[in-house]
Amino acid sequence: MTEQDNDNGTPHAPQAPQGRDPASLKAAADAILAAADAGAKAAAAEAGDEDSGPEGEPDPFAVLVALQQENADLKDRLLRAMSEAENTRRRAVRDREDAQRYGAQKFAGDMVIVSDNLRRAIAALKPEDRAASPETVQSLIDGVEATERQLLATFERHGIKEITPQAGDRFDAHLHEAMFEVPNSGQPAGTVVHVVEAGYMIGDRLLRAARVGVAKAEEGAPKSGGVDIQA
């Protein structure tokens, strides 16, 4: 059948041959589609799309593995963040407690000097002189003693405790400061013989060591277990 021109002079598209078997036409169409599908798969393989499944969809197993890895990473980051937050909270609590307990440490160190001076003022007047003193002087000494007691009670309320070793106590370099050695004391070497100034603790920290005199080692005198009197 020959081609014919339309009214505009453009030739018509070729017509399918008449009388061809429909089954043959279907087979030819299937072959063309199969070839196109094979070409598409080859192009995807060349592009490196190895994780694609049928019809270009992602491989379900690869997606599952990726989600599991992402979940593990998120869980690890969450646990780290929670741990850091807990550590920060604990540090804040500890810092707050330390501030409450030791915030007045410097002030307390200055105040113990006031306590020392009150104690010296009381000790300066001997009992016999006090008994012979006018009533006004005795009232003054009573007031100083009351002030000292009130100051020590205030120290106690704020966690400040006095360290007052007794004669014969074993010297403790963590709590005592040896100011001098006393010969012929009759006490084992390294034991406390005389207390110069009381010491103080604030909480579990040493505010000031007790200043003491210790027995000097003598030939033939017993020793207190080899105590080191060096602070």
Task: Summarize the helices and strands and which ones pair or pack.
Blueprint: H1 22-46, H2 60-102, H3 105-123, H4 127-132, H5 135-157, E1 160-163, E2 176-182, E3 192-197, E4 199-202, E5 205-208, E6 210-215
Parallel strand pairs: 2-6
Antiparallel strand pairs: 1-4, 3-6, 4-5
Helix pairs in contact: 3-5
List keywords for this structure.
3-stranded antiparallel beta sheet; rod-shaped; alpha+beta; single chain; 3-stranded mixed beta sheet; 231 residues; Nucleotide Exchange Factor Grpe, Chain A, domain 2; disordered N terminus
Low-confidence stretches are: 1-19
Which second-level CATH architecture of the domain at 161-231 applies? Roll
Largest sheet: 3 strands, antiparallel
CATH fold field value of the domain at 161-231 = Nucleotide Exchange Factor Grpe, Chain A, domain 2
CATH class of the domain at 161-231: Mainly Beta
User: How would you write the strand order of the largest sheet?
Assistant: 1-4-5
Q: Structural class of the secondary elements?
A: alpha+beta
Sequence of secondary-structure elements: HHHHHEEEEEE
CATH H-level superfamily of the domain at 161-231: Head domain of nucleotide exchange factor GrpE
